[in-house]
Write a structure and sequence with these properties.
The complex is a heterotrimer of chains A (about 475), B (about 210) and C (about 350). Chain A is built from 16 helices and two strands. By secondary structure, chain A is mainly α. Chain A starts with 9 loop residues before the first strand and ends in a 27-residue tail after the last helix. Chain C has about 350 residues and is α+β, with helices and mostly antiparallel strands. The longest helix of chain C is centred in the middle third of the chain and has 10 residues, at about 115-125. Chain C starts with 12 loop residues before the first helix and ends in a 35-residue tail after the last strand. Classes of the chains: A mainly alpha (about 475), B alpha+beta (about 210), C alpha+beta (about 350). Chains B and C meet through β5, β6 and α2 of B and β8, β9 and β10 of C.
Chain lengths: ~475, ~210, ~350
């Protein structure tokens, strides 16, 4: 894509017409947040910072007094922190799915939202990776993992996998940003501050849109999109092996790796839908992110719902049929006992997409977002019942212990969520949230089904050749 | 004359009562009074870890004792406990011979002894072997059992750290995968640098 | 003494005020007791602070040269000295410590009307902080009704799940058998506690409730991996088979204190064990009396064997349930400490 918007209609590589004024509109809309900031934004940032400040205060208190400030004890030695860890790492798989897998199969509908998806991945990984550190009893000795790290430990696998995934995702986020940074550099020179302009210039890496550059970028992106997929799969598999490598009854199963990856994709898609809906509203992107995206993601959520039901059936039917030692307690705990409220809300959340999305009357943007909210909450509950439910099963003849997160744990969790939102909010001000050049080159205006149309729908052109913009 | 016989009878019954009392204290239901002879033979030398055969011959004035249990023990002191450690037991055959086999686990001069617990007829007998058994050797016999050890997976490498190479190779599957992935990252970064280079080249061409 | 040789320790500067390669603290000479000669001439005396106080991010000691991350099997000092057959056999073979607990002679100390004495002796001997019971007497229901008591120390597995998962090798196997914890390396991630299938690992959640005597007993002593120190808040602790007692030629506190001599401590290498009163040959004792191990199906290969029973040698009726709860005898504990429920 050329740095300077050209006059006239361009065409996507599939021959769809992209009118110039549509493109101008897209660029203006996407770049608007980078140029102007309202007081409401600062109020929002201030609110998030307040929550984070509380979390920091509670964490310092935890450092002072030890982990006794939490609700964890010997018998339930992992709690809200590890639950949140698994939850955030799970969310991070959204980006890989949308950005990498769909790119590999050359789908086009997701192009307006790949940027948001990639951001969720990076931010969720950064926030998720904090939790094992928060959970450590001796975080001052964290260097020991590097110095004395053992290959054989699932925690070291976690460290390696998450570091690798974070690096890969950051790289994969940056590569498609280069042409958009060039757009910012060229279009926002006058309206933004000097340091912002310098930032865009450096970040654009000298992008001019030459064929040589395009080829190089294309090659780099191809490599990354292929390699990031197995990395993403391995990350949540390895996170599941924190539990599956133990001998405790509900953990001691071979299905955990696949189960967690499916759960990650499930929760990640839900997170994307929610974020997409919010940013679409706040940044006025209704014309470019339309019902098409929601529908496609909604159908995907529906499909993943069936996958999750399948995995849950696999797990519970096989275990419940045999009722090996530990299983009776666990089933009672889960379905009619201590964890029953969590479990049944989880089931409702997993089934919600089927009920909402399978039927046309509820298959609206609002309906799909509602289903996504159900799913996200359900997946958090699922992490809770996996971790707490697993630790509750008595290993020796003693009474099962209860667990309830304390105010310290809740405030740190709230702080992490606030940090997640804060990072996204900051990125909204510095990065274009829609991948402009990809939408222009490969997608074009949203086909029929868009809710806000400012221009007549471009007629299908037979012209097979996309003229190169000088 | 009559009193002497009476005294003898009283004396004998007293002795019998005493023996019965002693026997009940000793746990034998009704210990005999007759004396048996126990002869224990053990090899003079053995190697550590060998199966050692010891025999005992249990006889009495009336002949060999058949179907009696003889235990073989070694007086042992271990930490702050000491006593006779029973290492084997056997039942006497038709000739009153019992032989048992046990594995020699300790070195040094072991004083083997045989113990017959007695029965209704016979009193308990303990007899030491004619000579001490000298066991020599120093190879480690017991090896901890951890099933299948997959190097780099469920074991920690023995020995001391010998640097980066050893550390890396002990986890070679993970190391290999990581190397592969990070080299692909490096390739992508290389292509990214090509973007910059191409841009500069285009600028040169233009200017 | 079992510890790492050839590896520098990571020392928390806040606790000792100085960093010191572990090498210097090694004492290779024969010693007669646990406390003496660790502070002999030429060796660093590391001052123990009583209570660990936290003030945000603490300084991390400079990493030593070796980037290797190997856990080491302790180079047993046991074998270096021909001491009176206590810590090595006379001919220099390594001991392979094991325990046999005869449940026929265990009634949870019902007959002496006290809390289980094995647990009490362990707590007193090690100043185990409340509520840690490194040997814990569980009460298991029997199929026909009634209960039996199972004193469960750390099973010192030969295939220990805790050792497999530790990310820094803070818990490690020794050739002599006991699985030890290096409390100066432990980062407190607690994956070992998730992995232990016997519930035998305990975490110092807060400042540990230990008496002042514990602090005094430890002060002046060099750091020793065989001496677990409660003041390491945020690290894991457990039963360690009392390596010091063996070196002193005695059986562990729990075995010593059992009023019915139900706990045998022994060596699988020489196939011998004692409960302080009599000496048994372990292999035949186990075979003749149907010895078993806990949760054999896990494949952990524990070193603690049990002889099935429910106190019948003491005339116990299995239907008499219940034992007295464990007490920690400290009248006062270090300031800032409070107990927690497990």
């Amino acid at each position: 894509m050329d740095a300077v918007s050209s006059k006239g209609t361009t065409y996507t590589d599939q021959g769809r017409a992209v009118p110039a004024e549509w493109r101008e509109g897209l660029e203006n809309r996407v770049l608007a947040p980078l140029a102007k900031t309202t007081w409401r934004y600062f109020a929002w940032i201030g609110f998030l910072l307040a929550i984070i400040a509380l979390a920091v205060v509670m964490y310092i208190r935890q450092l002072n007094n030890g982990l006794i400030e939490t609700g964890m004890r010997d018998r339930i030695s992992w709690g809200l922190y590890i639950i949140s860890f698994v939850f955030f790492i799970g969310i991070s798989h959204a980006g890989t799915l949308l950005s990498a897998i769909l790119r590999v199969v050359k789908a086009r509908w997701q192009l307006p939202i790949t940027r948001m998806a990639e951001f969720i991945t990076v931010v969720a990984l950064m926030v998720g990776a904090l939790f094992p550190l928060i959970d450590l009893g001796r975080v001052d000795r964290i260097w020991n993992i590097v110095q004395y790290g053992r290959w054989q430990s699932p925690l070291v696998w976690d460290l390696l996998a998450i570091t690798t995934y974070l690096t890969g995702s950051a790289l994969y986020l940056y590569l498609p940003l280069i042409p958009d940074f060039a757009l910012c550099r060229d279009r926002l020179g006058s309206t933004t501050s000097a340091w912002k302009h310098t930032f865009f210039t450096i970040a654009a890496a000298g992008w001019k849109g030459t064929p040589g550059q395009r080829k190089a970028l294309d090659r780099a992106m191809t490599i990354m999109m292929v390699v990031i997929i197995p990395v993403a799969v391995s990350v949540h598999t390895v996170v599941s092996w924190l539990f599956a490598m133990t001998l405790r009854e509900p953990f001691n199963t071979t299905v955990f790796g696949a189960f967690f990856v499916a759960g990650a994709i499930f929760s990640g898609v839900a997170a994307i839908i929610i974020l997409m809906a919010v940013l679409r509203k706040v940044l006025h992107l209704e014309e470019y992110i339309t019902k098409n995206q929601f529908l496609a993601l909604g159908i995907f959520l529906l499909a993943m719902s069936f996958v999750m039901i399948y995995f849950n059936l696999s797990e519970y039917v096989t275990t419940g049929y045999k009722m090996e030692s530990g299983a009776p307690f666990h089933f009672h705990d889960l379905m009619i006992g201590y964890l029953a409220p969590f479990f049944w809300c989880y089931i409702i959340g997993v089934v919600a997409p089927i009920v909402i999305i399978a039927f046309p009357p509820t298959r609206t943007i609002k309906g799909i977002v509602t289903a996504a909210v159900f799913v996200l909450v359900a997946m958090w509950l699922e992490r809770y019942i996996i971790v707490v439910g697993g630790f509750r099963v008595p290993l020796m003849p003693y009474d099962a212990r209860a667990y309830a997160p304390t105010f310290t744990e809740w405030s740190i969790f709230a702080g992490a969520v606030a940090l997640f939102l804060l990072l996204i909010s900051i990125f909204v001000k510095f990065f274009p949230m829609v991948s402009v050049w990809e939408v222009v080159e490969h997608r074009g205006p949203e086909p029929d089904g868009s809710e806000a149309v400012h221009h007549p729908a471009a007629p299908r052109m037979e012209a097979p050749v996309a003229p190169e913009v000088a | 004359m009559k009193t002497r016989r009476l005294r003898l009878r009283i004396g004998a019954s007293l002795v019998a009562a005493a023996v019965a009392a002693l026997a009940s204290v000793g746990g034998v239901s009704a210990a005999g009074t007759q004396q048996a002879t126990l002869v224990v033979t053990a090899p003079a030398t053995a190697n550590l870890g060998d199966q050692v055969t010891v025999t005992a011959k249990l006889t009495s004035a009336a002949g060999a004792l058949v179907k009696e249990t003889v235990q073989f023990a070694i007086p042992t002191t271990f930490l702050n406990g000491s006593g006779d450690m029973v290492v084997a037991q056997a039942v006497t055959d038709g000739q009153g011979q019992a032989s048992a086999t046990f594995e020699a686990r300790s070195t040094g001069a072991l004083q083997l002894k045989g113990v017959f617990a007695g029965d209704n007829t016979y009193a308990p007998v303990t007899a030491a072997a004619s000579s001490t058994m000298t066991v020599t050797g120093n190879q480690q016999l017991y090896v901890p059992d951890i099933g299948i050890a997959l190097r780099g997976l469920n074991t920690t490498p023995t020995g001391q750290a010998t640097g980066f190479a050893h550390w890396f190779l002990s986890g070679w599957p993970i190391g290999a995968v990581l190397t592969l992935i990070w080299s692909m990252y490096a390739t992508a970064v290389y292509f990214m640098s090509r973007v910059v280079a191409e841009g500069e080249r285009a600028t040169e061409v233009q200017s | 003494m079992l510890h790492r040789v050839g590896e520098s320790q990571s020392v928390n500067a806040m606790e000792t005020g100085m960093s010191d390669p572990l090498n210097e603290l090694v004492d290779d000479d024969g010693r007669t007791g646990p406390l003496d000669a660790l502070t002999g001439a030429g060796q660093r005396r590391v001052k123990r602070r009583g209570v660990l106080r936290w003030l945000g991010a603490a300084a991390v000691a400079a990493p030593p040269l070796a980037f290797g991350g190997q856990t080491l099997f302790g180079k047993g000092l046991f074998s270096a000295t021909p001491k009176a057959a206590a810590t090595a056999t006379v001919d220099g073979r390594l001991r392979r410590w094991a325990m046999v607990i005869d449940l026929r002679a265990c009634d949870g100390c019902q007959s002496v009307n006290k809390p289980p004495q094995c647990t009490a002796a362990c707590i007193e001997g090690h100043f185990a902080p409340q509520p840690m019971e490194w040997i814990q007497v569980f009460e298991q229901s029997l199929p026909g009704g009634g209960t039996r008591f199972e004193p469960a120390p750390c099973q010192q597995c030969q295939n220990p799940p805790c050792t497999n998962v530790c990310p820094v090798g803070a818990t490690f196997s020794t050739p002599e058998g006991p699985v030890l914890i290096d409390q100066e390396r432990c980062i407190g991630c607690r994956i070992c506690m998730a992995a232990c299938p016997y519930d035998r690992r305990f975490f110092n959640w807060g400042t540990s409730p230990q008496p002042a005597e514990a602090v005094q007993a430890m002060s002046g002593m060099a750091y020793n991996v065989e001496h677990q120190e409660p003041e390491f808040r945020g690290t894991v602790m457990k039963c360690d088979f009392c390596p010091d007692m063996a070196r002193a030629g005695k059986i562990p506190y729990c075995a010593d204190a059992c009023p019915n001599h139900a706990i045998y401590y022994g060596d699988l290498e020489e196939d011998v064990a004692t409960n302080g009163k009599s000496v048994i040959q372990v292999s035949s004792f186990l075979s003749d009396n149907s010895g078993f191990r806990l949760s054999e199906e896990y494949g952990t290969e524990p070193r603690v064997y049990y002889i099935p029973g429910s106190g019948e040698a003491l005339g116990r009726n299995p239907m008499t349930k219940g034992r007295m709860p464990t007490v920690w005898p400290w009248k006062t504990t270090v300031s800032g400490s409070k107990t927690w429920t497990r």
